Write a sequence for this structure.
């Protein structure tokens, strides 16, 4: 009996999980290639107001991100620099760089439904979560991800629907520790860039805040374009653009 | 006949009368003064609260008061104000913007609450001007008054530049620089501690609230209550009395007053006991006399009535004298408060002296207590006297 269990476990990891690992690896890296530059349109909708932000984004690996708002005019030049686990915001009107404290990580980023933590987090689905396939069809998998003990996250469970042929996410559901669905991210407008598929639109719906929705659309997303390290220096934050 | 007899009886034994009336006067004055001082303190607390910030009432957007959000604002506020002012019970209506922000100065950060006001109106209808201890009232758009704690923690003084960051009503980032022109009460705590006062138009820009406000503060004419004002508002706006606006404070005060009621009850009890004692003694003293009256054919009911009327007359006399003394005493202490050695703090305000009130209730309640107790107290000896057997009474 015992041998049988060990055997099935062995077969499981030898077969299913290897391909699942690879798949997750691809999913983890959809937006995180060696480097990227893009223009991002963020639409925020709440029951009380709506607004559209246009920003420029540069990334390098998983560690570095630089974002600066180009419109609306009122917020032009407001920038965010993310380096490893730290994050700074720059407000040109008051010429002030403010480090985002750990306590504010779950706070809204630029008034959207995304949190500061969404920008900072560096964990990968492959390495920091245990995974289990819940449903499998020809073209899509539904995967349950549970954080490992060492993983620092606010989520109790993430349910991932992936396109198994294009290696891209279709939908992500985020649950809290009590198992309540908190938010969902839907991916759409799939395009092929540098031989890989990338969904260019991300729509986030908060289930605990009905009527709230944030949509991010990438415009002219360039992957592996060689972004200079100078972009991610502190003094670039204050540079006039 | 009854009244005349009772009146004469009172003056027959002057010492006895003086003693009884004296006790009643003492009780009246004690109770009245206690009430006047207690109510006086509460009244002055309420007055300070209303004068400082709250006003008699406020207008907000729907449920702003229970769940304040930057976007819950009053549109076309100027039009609403102009309609409100037409009401003959309303003296003034001042628009305000309220919000929170993070304040930055050099390396320090502190959470502040912003109040955007029309300084001209605010100075005319609140005590804001008196509370400013240092500097001048802002005249330019980006000038501010800061609370004591803001100044202390950020180490800000007049002339320094404070950076404020928050988010606007449309979700945008609110950030701007402000110059401190005045500080409120830098040494002491209070309701202004975390406040930053700025001009209304600046606050509207800061929170992206063009042409909108969060609050309209109302002052009523004289001491007319809100109910009398009969204010009609469009359905998306709500009117709240100061008791609703400062509900925490109001509830705390009501609880405090209830605690005070025990003290009042003890005083009523002591006064009643004093009256009972003197009346009972003075009547027991006259057992022989009643025996004689009975012996010459006075009817028991007449005797009982006589005692009751006598005691009531004494009660009226005591009340009258007590009223005159209390009136003088309370008026004096309403003008010259009792200075406290250590100031008491209540709801963020400091009180250095206790002032008495001269409200009608302060004089009516003790009068009621004295007369009612003297009536009930007189029932016992009246009943006993009517049952008295003349021979035994005269022998004692």
């Amino acid at each position: 009996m015992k041998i049988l269990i060990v055997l099935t476990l062995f077969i499981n990891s030898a077969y299913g999980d290897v391909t699942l690992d690879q798949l997750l690896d691809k999913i983890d890296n959809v937006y995180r290639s060696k480097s990227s530059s893009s223009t991002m349109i963020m639409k925020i909708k709440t029951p009380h107001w709506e607004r559209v932000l246009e920003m420029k984004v540069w990334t390098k690996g998983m560690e570095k991100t630089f974002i600066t708002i180009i419109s609306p005019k009122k917020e032009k030049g407001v920038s965010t620099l993310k380096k490893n686990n730290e994050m700074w915001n720059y407000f040109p009107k008051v010429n002030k760089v403010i480090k985002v404290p750990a306590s504010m990580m779950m706070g809204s980023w630029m008034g959207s439904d995304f949190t500061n933590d969404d920008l900072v987090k560096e964990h990968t689905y492959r390495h920091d979560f245990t995974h289990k396939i819940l449903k499998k069809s020809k073209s899509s998998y539904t995967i349950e991800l549970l954080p490992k003990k060492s993983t620092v996250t606010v989520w109790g469970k993430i349910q991932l629907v992936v396109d198994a042929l294009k290696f891209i996410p279709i939908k992500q559901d985020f649950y809290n520790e009590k198992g309540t669905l908190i938010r969902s991210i839907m991916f759409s407008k799939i395009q092929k860039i540098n031989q890989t598929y990338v969904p260019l639109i991300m729509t986030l719906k908060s289930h605990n805040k009905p009527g709230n929705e944030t949509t991010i659309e990438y415009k002219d997303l360039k992957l592996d374009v060689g972004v200079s390290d100078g972009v991610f220096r502190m003094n670039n934050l204050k540079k006039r653009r | 006949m009854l009244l005349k007899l009772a009146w004469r009886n009172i003056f027959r034994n002057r010492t006895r009368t003086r003693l009884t009336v004296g006790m009643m006067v003492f009780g009246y004055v004690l109770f009245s003064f206690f009430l006047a001082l207690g109510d006086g303190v509460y009244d002055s607390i309420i007055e300070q609260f209303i004068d400082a910030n709250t006003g008699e009432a406020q207008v907000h957007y729907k449920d702003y008061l229970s769940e304040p959000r930057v976007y819950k604002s009053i549109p076309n506020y100027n039009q609403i104000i102009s309609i409100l002012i037409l009401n003959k019970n309303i003296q003034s209506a001042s628009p305000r913007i309220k919000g929170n922000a993070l304040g930055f100065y050099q390396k320090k950060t502190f959470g502040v609450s912003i109040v955007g006001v029309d300084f001209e109106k605010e100075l005319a209808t609140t005590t804001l001007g008196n509370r400013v201890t240092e500097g001048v009232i802002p005249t330019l758009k980006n000038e501010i008054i800061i609370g004591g704690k803001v100044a202390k923690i950020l180490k800000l003084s007049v002339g320094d530049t404070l950076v404020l960051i928050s988010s606007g009503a449309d979700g945008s980032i609110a950030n701007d620089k402000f110059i401190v022109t005045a500080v409120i009460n830098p040494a002491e705590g209070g309701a202004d501690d975390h406040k930053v006062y700025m001009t209304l138009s600046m606050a509207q820009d800061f929170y992206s609230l063009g042409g909108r406000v969060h609050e309209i503060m109302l002052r009523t004419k004289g001491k007319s209550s809100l109910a009398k004002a009969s204010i009609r508002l469009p359905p998306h706006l709500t009117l709240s009395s100061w008791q609703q606006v400062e509900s925490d404070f109001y509830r705390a005060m009501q609880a405090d007053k209830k605690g005070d009621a025990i003290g009042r009850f003890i005083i009523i009890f002591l006064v009643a006991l004093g009256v009972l004692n003197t009346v009972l003694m003075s009547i027991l003293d006259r057992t022989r006399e009643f025996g004689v009256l009975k012996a010459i054919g006075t009817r028991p009911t007449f005797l009982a009535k006589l005692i009751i009327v006598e005691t009531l007359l004494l009660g009226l006399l005591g009340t009258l004298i007590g009223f005159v003394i209390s009136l003088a005493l309370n008026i004096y202490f309403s003008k010259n408060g009792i200075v406290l050695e250590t100031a008491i703090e209540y709801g963020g305000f400091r009180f250095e002296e206790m002032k008495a009130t001269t409200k009608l209730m302060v004089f009516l309640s003790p009068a009621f207590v004295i007369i009612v107790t003297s009536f009930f107290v007189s029932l016992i000896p009246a009943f006993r006297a009517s049952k008295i057997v003349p021979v035994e009474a005269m022998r004692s």
